[in-house]
Design goal:
The protein is of the alpha/beta class and about 240 residues long. The chain has two domains: about 80 residues, Nitrogenase molybdenum iron protein domain (Rossmann fold), CATH 3.40.50; about 130 residues, Nitrogenase molybdenum iron protein domain (Rossmann fold, 3-Layer(aba) Sandwich), CATH 3.40.50.1980. Helix content is about 45%, strand content about 15%. Strands 3, 4, 5, 6 and 7 form a five-stranded mixed β-sheet that branches. A two-stranded parallel sheet has the order 1-2. Helix 4 packs antiparallel against helix 5 and helix 5 runs parallel beside helix 11.
């Protein structure tokens, strides 16, 4: 609520956190419809609200949004509910057309190898082609090294990265403290003496990606995220 410029009114109601929504605060608003996530780390935190909302006569809809087509599906449902077909066209179908054009114009034939990582205050983890940014990179013609070594999801180490020596290394900062996330990256990855020998590091393809385009769902700006990656891959 503090770090993103969402253009919300000052009197917007806060109903807990993403992981811990407050059912009492939600019920106090007497909403007609509650939109919930089906993909929280603690799945019970949202699913557990279903019965309480149902008993209060409040309709709840659960969505899982990872890739653009998931967003498009949710947007269609919400636009149908509000009767705003223009919003679906502008924020959905028009964006889809832009994405298709970006992929058609920029898809690589060489299939460069990539490592995609998320860094946060408590650690680092690699991301596969099934994630939001991973899918975008794959559609633009990249080959994720986790596709060859899925064990890196659980056994992530600098040694594995050095062995794979990817053409690109992309890093997304996660959480509310970017400074701590970057500090963790330096201490646990960049401090390894062999890190500077990696092809991606030596050739300037070790890249920190902006959170607004690759950590948070870009929604109506999804085409901008594709274009951002396409520019990096063609630099």
């Amino acid at each position: 609520m503090d770090s993103r410029d969402l253009g919300l009114p000052e009197d917007i109601a806060i109903v807990g956190t993403y992981q811990d929504p407050n059912i009492e605060a939600i019920l106090a608003l007497e909403p007609d419809l509650v939109l919930l996530s089906a993909e929280t780390t603690r799945t019970d935190s949202h699913v557990a609200l279903k019965d309480a909302l149902s008993e209060a006569g409040i309709t709840a809809a659960y969505f899982s949004v990872t890739h653009f087509e998931d967003y498009l599906n949710m947007l269609k449902i919400c636009s149908d509910i509000t009767g705003d077909a223009d919003a679906y066209q502008k924020n959905g179908l028009d964006v889809e057309a832009k994405i298709e054009a970006i992929i058609a114009e920029n898809k690589l034939d060489t299939e460069p190898s990539v490592l995609l990582m998320v860094t946060y205050s408590g650690g680092i983890r690699a991301q596969s082609s099934d994630t939001m940014t991973g899918r975008m990179l794959a559609e633009l013609g990249c080959h994720n090294i986790l596709d060859d070594n899925p064990g890196m999801l659980q056994d992530f180490s600098v040694e594995n990265i050095i062995e794979a020596d990817p053409d690109y290394i992309f890093v997304i900062p996660m959480g509310n403290d970017d400074a701590l996330a970057e500090k963790n990256l330096k201490e646990n990855v960049e401090s390894n003496p062999a890190w500077s020998s990696l092809t991606a590091v030596k050739e300037g393809r070790y890249i920190l990606l902006p959170k607004d385009k690759f950590m948070y769902k870009p929604n109506a700006r999804w085409a901008e995220s594709y274009a951002y990656l396409a520019d990096l891959l063609h630099a």
